Amino acid sequence: MRAMVYRGPYKVRVEEKDRPRIEHPNDAIVRVTAAAICGSDLHLYHGMIPDTRVGMTFGHEFVGEVVEVGPSVERLKVGDRVMVPFNIYCGSCYFCVRGLFSNCHNVNPNATAVGGIYGYSHTSGGYDGGQAEYVRVPLADVGPSVIPDWLDERDAVLLTDALPTGYFGAQLGDIAEGDTVVVFGAGPVGLFAARSAWLMGAGRVIVVDHLEYRLEKARDFAHAETVNFTELDDVVVEMKRTTDWLGADVVIDAVGAEADGNFLQHVTSAKFKLQGGSPVALNWAIDSVRKGGTVSVVGAYGPIFSAVKFGDAMNKGLTIRTNQCPVKRQWPRLLEHIRAGYFKPSDIITHEIPLEHITEGYHMFSAKLDNCIKPIVVPSAA
Amino acid sequence: MPYNAEPHLRRPSSEALRERIPGWGADLDPADRPSVPRELNLTPEDNGAHWDVPERQPELEPRERSIEHGMLPPVFGTVAPLRGLSGAIRRYAYENYSEARAAHWLLLVLGDRVDAGEQHLRSLASTRPDNPITQTGVLSEGRRHGVASRFGVGRADTAHQWMDPVIVAAPWVVTAIGIGLLVRGARRTASSERVQTE
């Protein structure tokens, strides 16, 4: 089969790879019909996540058709069109029965701090991802769901990570009616988090980024006020000024490990891999939120230490809430919202790239060329 | 400006927001939010699991694991098993240091760099050697408005993007210099041996 393959930092290619096989009785093999490149794939692409091995196929956002099932699979059958959450999880462990699917303890030998994620290094379990013609889906009775007939496949692929993560990020903020919510990052997750903040009754939603085309999307798609931090000497002062010098009630970090805005922080993490992530957005969040406020972190960071301003967080009495999103918990309510017409997830897709040209897709998304917000990858057989 | 105790004066009314924004307030009640409360009380069957612990996946070759796991978890990925020098570094990191130790992660990062070097060298002996031009996607700069996307639009990342080609090219340049030095050393040794023989 054809598959995207990592060849080292900043280098990927498409090559022939063995088609995945059933390795566990509850595995399914899915023929991928659409996948996406996620902003967190760029952390892998840039060589930031420890134990990312040459030869791995990335891709944790994908939908497709079941072509083979293991002997113990009961809930899926060959031919089903499925959307697959980015979490791999067992459904039965201490964490899964508490609904913490992203923290499953039974699927990742390489780390206890991280659950299982498709195509996301050995630190997330060593599974191949969906930027390929076929993918192994472990524990197929637990994770995937059949795509509802009424739902477009392009909307479904955004339900596998980006939309649920943004929606989850807004929930972590514990937003109350009338709250001022600041979202750092106008990428797909930030846009969905901003949009979701309104559902929870926010009084103001302010999105901060440095890419003007993304801020335009934040205004149009997410109905948000926007701030371009490159136009300011100090974005934290602006956040204080616009909130009557108190700070926002809730701040959401939807940027994660490669945040810009501080040269030293960015270079020591994204370029020289000496930090688990560049905590610029996280530090701005800590300093922009009001005392006693909540910081929600859904931006992804690596496991190495980062230079976080924890003293400010402590002294301000903040609540810091974090996690990888337990995707399947979000689906029933999100499907209701989509069906009610509150938003259309695929509105943020800007590019469709054939799998054979995925190298170009990675470079474009990484370098933020061509006003790229969300690229979808389509295998040739799809 | 004096301290103002009236919070957030710029906030529109809820009625105005409900009018303007589709779905405003649909999840106002925390009971409608799927991740509230954080922890639920589910059964495995609620999650589709018909097991208390999943069946064990066959361990066809020794699988490295974090020493914070009491035993190998029942399900795991099998991509790219440990091989070569990078494999030895990674195995050492897994066997000797917990996830709490910086040495664990820094050794894994070192393993990644060694892995890339090993695989580049191996590819040179294959029918499809690595190609740093096509594999970086840099040829798309023209088709994807590389200049217009970067300049005159106030981006913060242009301050460091110049480093990317250096990071990509550095291993190749260092390897080329290394090979050059080795060849020069070998030639010098050979010529001095010839002089001694004469």
Keywords:
A: 382 residues; alpha/beta; Quinone Oxidoreductase, Chain A, domain 1; Rossmann fold; 2 domains; seven-stranded mixed β-sheet; six-stranded parallel β-sheet; 11 helices; 17 strands; B: 198 residues; mainly alpha
Care to describe what's here?
The complex is a heterodimer of chains A (382) and B (198). Chain A is an alpha/beta fold. Chain A has 2 domains: 2-161 and 326-378, Quinone Oxidoreductase, Chain A, domain 1 (Alpha-Beta Complex); 163-322, Rossmann fold. Chain A is 25% helix and 23% strand. Chain A has helices spanning 41-45, 153-158, 162-172, 188-199, 212-220, 235-241, 263-271, 280-288, 310-315, 327-339, 358-367, and strands at 2-8, 11-16, 28-36, 61-69, 81-84, 87-88, 116-117, 134-137, 145-146, 180-184, 204-209, 225-228, 248-253, 289-297, 319-322, 351-354, 375-378. In chain A, the strands form 4 sheets. In chain A, strands 3, 4, 5, 8, 9, 16 and 17 form a 7-stranded mixed β-sheet that branches. A 6-stranded parallel β-sheet of chain A has the order 12-11-10-13-14-15, sandwiched between helices. In chain A, strands 1-2 form a two-stranded antiparallel sheet. In chain A, helix 3 (162-172) crosses helix 4 (188-199). The longest helix of chain A has 13 residues, at 327-339. Chain A starts with a strand and ends with a strand. In chain A, 68% of the residues are buried. The mean pLDDT of chain A is 97. The mean pLDDT of chain B is 91. Helix content of chain B is 42%, strand content 0%. Chain B has helices at 14-20, 84-96, 102-124, 146-150, 163-197. Chain B has a domain at 82-111. Chain B is flat and about 100 Å long. Chain B is an all-alpha fold. At the A-B interface, strand 2, helix 3, helix 4, helix 7 and helix 10 of A face helix 1, helix 2, helix 3, helix 4 and helix 5 of B.
